[in-house]
């Protein structure tokens, strides 16, 4: 069977590696030397790691010592939430509250549920508006109810499903009034919108390699030196004594190259793909007048388009597009591939039905006008077909 | 043809999908997520509802080289199969959820969605054979491997459903299917067969029913009565755990006067009375069936054929008559029009089926399905409403 050429519109799930990151990574795959060894080979590996750390630090405007390498975004989120919660509570047992939003990624929500169930944390997930933007007044009210009991606040920089940017600056200003540390999951934001760690005022920030054109399996928690973090993974204490495990030199070199290049090209990249995205959204709404675009219309990720197609199952749409070589996402949480209605859309006030009728198209550095054309050509008939399937 | 292959994660459906693809069809694999909470259904590698099964199905699709998706049918399954199963038990009947699932889920909800999405047929790993008869209708026949034959649980399918079904294993023996799976590099080749009800996690039906039914149970206990003497032999904690024909687990202290084993003859759901007695009192030879479903043409004259009364049960020689009841269903028109739609509500049928067995059958409970055969061909099915013994007093029959 001839398969049609692939139109990849799922860059938010993972984006192809940048050639510069591939070169940086593969350059070290044959090198021997554990960065923790004391001999020349060890020192050479350590030098690659520390240069990578410095590259990331200068790119994101933090100090090199604030970059803690992890196995990716999920580990970085776990380390931030659990590590800061434990340290804050150890310093003052009254600090047991964690405030976050109802639209976080599962890498944040699941550790929070775990902390609530197993560690006695009082977790409150604050509401968002129809565009998935955090209700800062609700956050303020929750903080001010009992500031002394606050352990930390975690608010994502940009939502992975509907693309809405969160008012992280307002969250930081509010938290600063009460000396509460703030963590942000910036996995979708780095390289897509301007991210300046020091200027943002956050205390901890999660990033991951494979969303910025770097390799899988590597990421970092950027965490201010002044913030106490209890270790999650114990061992050799390689990363500032809060993260153990042999340091993955080639992956870190690839990560640094990807962060550096994607941030350097961010403005130009964002301008290009937001134009493509706007054409995609306008074209889909033109082809399917009943479709609805979700998320904040302006304060959003440049590559994200999220649409609801009333009367269609998102699963059916995905399958029909997939059969035509067009790859997107229902933006839903999948445990064992069992689709569930997206918690993000439900939190935005969508019905279960609306939440199950939605698709996310996400553009990235390899996206072309031809990709958008292919989608716009297919979407009308595909929606017709999916509607027919649901009417049965 | 564009074929949607339902893949449970077992060996049969994997080979069925592989054969459909090899036959040149454009095949897409799907796994049906039937449990709202996969962990709550049976664990281990025997069911079709666990994460492990879903992964097995996905890996089989990879090996075959076909696209694969998971379809969430858990709400429909819960409503149409699990709730129906509980309702039937609450009413004191013994349902077969596999037939119900085929009728309402696999060859209705799934088939309808597949047709809507542009597929021509649904393929499954059921052991049954389809062929086109002289009259141009699709006939369903027993599988070549009689030990594995699953035409019984497909006896609820009508002509429209059969016209959009593919059963690639009907001409094969199970051991050959396993051998073929191994040769094709399918890792599920040695996976054990599933036997029990997929949504009862540990296979303890009675315990599961007691827990799920709770206050909906028809009774919370009752007397165990000797059919011959009328003596109360003991008490039980609810009729839900009892089946007509059951011998074990009655926990009657006293042996029968004649020393012969006693069987459950009748279950009275309201009073909770369980009547026990000798095996010969279990014998029935008259069955009244309702909710008839016909694979093709409705028999216009009494049919001299066979009936099967439980999955993998014996064939009984029988004479089957269709009796049009004086139904007052407005605008129902001809009762044979049901073949036009796969989503037709079978309960709306106005036919009653009378079955005369030439030799008695034992341990037949209302709620079970009677599947009617003409030789190897499946004619249709009906749900057993009542049973009787022509010569003696009714057993398990109308009250």
The number of helical elements of chain A comes to: 13
Indicate the CATH topology of the largest domain in chain A. Aspartate Aminotransferase, domain 2
Q: Which structural class do you get from the secondary structure elements of chain B?
A: alpha/beta
- Give me the count of strands of chain B: 17
What class do helices, strands and sheet pairing of chain A give? alpha/beta
- The assigned CATH architecture of the largest domain in chain A is 3-Layer(aba) Sandwich
Q: Please mark out the parts of chain A with pLDDT under 50 across 5 or more consecutive residues, or reply none.
A: none
The SSE string of chain B, one letter per element, is EHEHEHHEEEHEHHEEEEEEEEEE
* CATH classification class of the largest domain in chain A: Alpha Beta
- Assigned CATH class of the largest domain in chain B: Alpha Beta
**How much of the residues of chain B is beta strand, in percent?**
25-35%
Q: Termini separation of chain A (Å)?
A: 29 Å
Number of domains of chain B: 3
| Shape summary of chain A | globular
CATH architecture of the largest domain in chain B: 3-Layer(aba) Sandwich
Strand order of the largest sheet of chain B: 12-15-14-13-16-17
In brief, what are we looking at here?
The complex is a heterodimer of chains A (392) and B (399). With 392 residues, chain A is of the alpha/beta class.
Explain how this protein is built.
- With 392 residues, chain A is of the alpha/beta class.
- Chain A contains 13 helices and 14 strands.
- Chain A is 42% helix and 14% strand.
- In chain A, α4 links the parallel β3 and β4.
- In chain B, α1 packs parallel to α2, α1 crosses α6 and α3 runs antiparallel to α4.
- About 8% of the residues of chain B have low confidence.
- Chain B has three domains: 147 residues, HUPs (Rossmann fold), CATH 3.40.50; 64 residues, Adenine nucleotide alpha hydrolases-like domains (SH3 type barrels, Roll), CATH 2.30.30.280; 106 residues, Elongation Factor Tu (Ef-tu), domain 3 (Beta Barrel), CATH 2.40.30.10.
- Chain B is an alpha/beta fold.
- Chain B starts with a strand and ends in an 11-residue tail after the last strand.
- In chain B, strands 12-15-14-13-16-17 form a six-stranded antiparallel barrel.
- The interface between A and B is medium-sized, with 21 and 22 residues.
